[in-house]
Design goal:
7 helices; 7-stranded mixed β-sheet; about 30% helix; alpha+beta; 11 strands; about 350 residues
């Protein structure tokens, strides 16, 4: 089945074998996401620390090359650009889930907490070796420098979503369903880095899912501030090759909140509502059409054709009178047509 994006719902990214996985791990030195593994906290801490130390050492060496080094900044950059690889992100078919909804008007996703948002990433050519960095940020400029973290209640150790999870992963609002993802923190800002594989043969995209483990309404967390996801396509040296953004609201009732925010947009446009109201009640407005009067003399063969021409002319002016409210202006010319009608 093909959705509006033109991609097949059954297409998925190619799976890696154990040997390929080890080779990729050696090349990228990534930090695996241990939140899906049932291991003790001590073992997780030890393995996480070893891999993290190696990863940071490699980044330190890359820092000597200013052309490729990704500078650390307290304010995330949000401007979109596809780059030379035409980086794109799209939503999967929504018919398969009732837990999230997309607003075409707001270009925004509304989703329940702990539900998966299926996304599709595409780049050209679809070669291997790229990384996807996903960060959740605040949309408003006055909060741009504030890191997005989970609230105190959802970070509590007794929360079911925090079992067998590394403490440094618990603070992330979003988690990637790809087990090869690694969780980073720079200047208190959190992000997830996921290796992108070559799309499956016959496919043009790679599917990646994300879960949200805190709500926008949580007081000690996002505290009702609007948020969005920032996706960046990066190479192995962390050079940004493309960037996309997707506003997201994590809530209890996606459909209700979608309708509410869309209504707020309409209420914020009083001038538009006023113009529509004036047109509906026939208030006088300045002419929005050509009011120059032309005199036409025609010889028409056939009575039915003659009546059709008169009716067409009458209907045109009646329509313009209704749309513009200029009934007094058009009335004499419409009456003249009626007098000429047999």
């Amino acid at each position: 089945m093909t959705n509006t994006n033109g991609f097949s719902d059954s297409q998925e990214s190619a799976l890696l074998g154990e040997e390929e996985y080890k080779e990729l791990e050696k090349e990228l030195d990534f930090i695996p996401a241990f939140w899906t593994q049932n291991v003790s906290e001590t073992k997780v801490e030890e393995k996480y620390d070893v891999i993290l130390t190696e990863y940071l050492e490699e980044e330190k060496q890359m820092g000597d090359d200013e052309q490729y080094f990704q500078p650390e900044t307290s304010i995330p950059v949000k401007e979109e650009f596809p780059g030379r690889h035409n980086f794109q992100v799209s939503l999967a078919n929504q018919d398969s889930s009732k837990h999230w909804v997309y607003s075409q008007t707001l270009k925004k996703v509304f989703i329940n907490m702990e539900e998966t948002l299926p996304l599709r990433f595409k780049w050209e050519p679809p070669i291997d070796g790229f990384l996807l960095r996903t960060a959740m940020v605040f949309s408003l400029d006055q909060y741009a420098s504030d890191p997005v973290r989970r609230c105190h209640n959802h970070m509590a150790p007794n929360n079911s979503s925090n079992r067998d999870i590394d403490p440094r992963v618990i603070k992330h609002v979003i988690r990637c369903t790809d087990h090869m993802s690694m969780y980073e923190e720079r200047n208190e800002h959190l992000s997830i880095v996921t290796p992108l594989h070559t799309p499956q043969p016959g496919s043009q995209y790679v599917p990646v899912g994300f879960k949200f483990l805190c709500k926008n309404s949580c007081p000690s967390g996002m505290n009702r501030r609007p948020t969005e996801l920032i996706f960046t396509l990066e190479d192995r040296k962390r050079k940004v090759l493309g960037r996309r953004r997707l506003p997201v609201r994590v809530c209890s009732c996606p459909k209700r909140d979608k309708k509410k925010e869309e209504a707020e947009i309409v209420d914020a446009q009083p001038d538009l509502k006023k113009r529509k109201l004036c047109m509906s009640v026939g208030k006088k407005m300045m002419p929005s059409c050509d009011t120059h009067v032309f005199s036409v003399q025609l010889n028409i063969v056939g009575k039915e054709n003659y009546l059709a021409v008169l009716k067409y002319a009458y209907d045109i002016m009646a329509g313009q009178a209704s749309r513009t409210g200029q009934f007094e202006f058009f009335k004499p010319y419409m009456d003249d047509i009626l007098r000429k009608t047999p």
